[in-house]
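pasting for ref. prot 1 ->
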Amino acid sequence: MQRNFLKVGVAQMQETRRLGRNLREMARFVHAASHAKIGLLVFPECALTGYGPSYHESPGGFDPDAVEAAIAEVRGLAREVRMAMVIGAHLPVEGGPHRQTSPPPARRRSWTNSALLIASDGRVRTRYDKAHLYGRDAEFYQAGSAPAAVAGLRRLRLGLQICFDIRFPEPFRRLALRGARVILVPSHIHGRREMWKGPVIEAHVRSRAAENGRFVVFANAAGPAQNVPSMIADPRGEIVARARRGARQLLVAALNLRRVSDDFLRARRTDLCDARLLPS
């Protein structure tokens, strides 16, 4: 990463229900990104583990030791190629039961849908647990309870959100106010290509970038049902890079961080805002 510039990559990969296969696919993207001299590589939501515990064949549910070992391999890859990355995975809730059947009883939700920011030295710099759970997610995951946090990567401050979080502007504004210059959004959004999600999600990617003057990197999973391509928006809300919908692809963009702007943050009329739900 050069001063004021970040070469970012999105690994638009198709995850499977097999941890080992996902890990091998991720390794291929990592080495391709290394050849492209990418400084930060962003994988989709749950790229390592597959999305949704019900997606997995094993009747015993997830083995946390296997997940931990796979994360260790990814950290080793980061050290090997000296590249930072964001990976999505199911992670055990700290202090909770670490094994669950699929699908679990609601009282035993012991996994979070999470993203890890791994530095180029292999260290995990931060963990973000998805706060807004969509559809059946709440049957399998425990929602994150910590506010959106900013993590440092060398001189750059980054924010993390996951998929459905993009429908809510408040965490993105919090990240911008706390100094994040690039906000990373691992996602898994699939469905009919003609459904409403495509234009609506792109509008959210654009607006979250423009209303905060930040770059937004949206990394969606590939596959035949992918209805929103991965994309990167600049601080004006313009799409500067877009993947091919459905295709396994490494999307690359060079971000000029000098373009990050606090103009809209300074112009806010906070005296006219009330975050509480007003009575009807």
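and prot 2 ->
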Amino acid sequence: MSLVNHILPPRLSPGDTVAAVTLSWGGPGTFPYRYEAGKRQFEETFGCRVIEAPHALKNAAFIQANPQARAEDLMWAFENSEVKAVISTIGGEDSIRMLPFIDFDKLRRNPKIFLGYSDSTVTHFMCQRAGLVSYYGPSFMSGFAENCGIHDYLKESVRTVLFEGGSGKLRSNQSGWTVEMLPWENPENQNTKRTLNPSTGWKVLQGGEPFEGRLLGGCINTLERIISTDLWPSLDCWKGTILFFETSESAPSPAFVRKWLKGYEAQGIFDVIQGVLFGRPGGHELTEEDYLEYDDMLQEIFQEAGCSRLPLISRMDFGHTDPMMVLPVGGQVRVSPAAQTLTLQSPF
């Protein structure tokens, strides 16, 4: 796999049809009101029509027991000429079981937008193996189903990356962020806005000059499940990339993240990448002291590896905090730490 010649899928336009796929956990069958809220808010905000893949609304027990059906839904969505984008309904921890049933040639022959995060990291690396640029961002049940309406920051990011494309520019979120958990078991919570924390912007831990590269990464918990499979890129594929990663709601400690990153160091990845972007640890409330532990760990591990000049930014707006930006996986970007901007480089 090479990132150099990845296919950039066509942009979205109002009126396009989008397919919802459930590739990991049966969230729509467990909390149908939450899925319907995300579907409705997406359609109203972006003017697209959402249809469901054949098994997308099945209950959680069916979804868990049938990875082949999930893979068939993904293939169905990519091969359906009516569908212009494929969006995950929710994450989970089971997408990796689809791998034996994926037809990578079909994915490559039918390039279109794939959007999702968390366990959807698996599907992003399937797209990478197929030679497609994909998009790390919200799902229908998380992000698009935000209580009382989609955050403006997310709306702007989706429009910039998926609808406008080109050389659009993403900025750090200055409107506040949240990891507050209002249980989905109570549908009434859908009408309660989550509390926002003040935005402090990205934190530059190393390097202050602009840098460029192709984005590659995802949820680091999920990446651990990919490393031992054929989806994991060779060292040559990591050359010239920007590693981006974030942590799931399971809240792995800085010590756990350190152990995982040591494996990347052992593969030689630190020596060939152009920079590192770390999303704000999410899914749980953290104190400033907690954030400093992550920051200190990141600086220490890269300094120990002899990479003290490698650009390193933390507390970025992607992953398991809301609102999030949309990142083109396999797409060329320019990161300006001082300005706190990420600019799409066209063509990818």
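Residues 17-166 form a domain with the Rossmann fold fold (CATH 3.40.50.10740).
Residues 7 and 121 are 18 Å apart (CA to CA).
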